[in-house]
Request: fold
Amino acid sequence: MLKIELVPDLNHCIETVAKQKYAEVVRQLLSSGAGDEKLCERAKLLRSFLETADFKKLREESERYLVGGRRVKFVVYLKAGAAMYEMRVH
Reply:
């Protein structure tokens, strides 16, 4: 199962990190050609996450830990065709 880790911090919220990762994957796809299935799947997953996630809720959940000095990581994956996530606090 494809999983993508996104790590926000106090300077970059989860939405910004997801947009940056999506742009990075799209650039890689454009330079390598559209035949790279793994990159295509990563782009689809990130696009789905960006289109469906409640970023206000995700920011609220993660920022309270970040302000407290904890590290937060979101693991994004597909389940039944929908983008899902797990938030892990370290």
User: Anything to note?
Assistant: The chain has three helices and three strands. The chain has a mean pLDDT of 95.
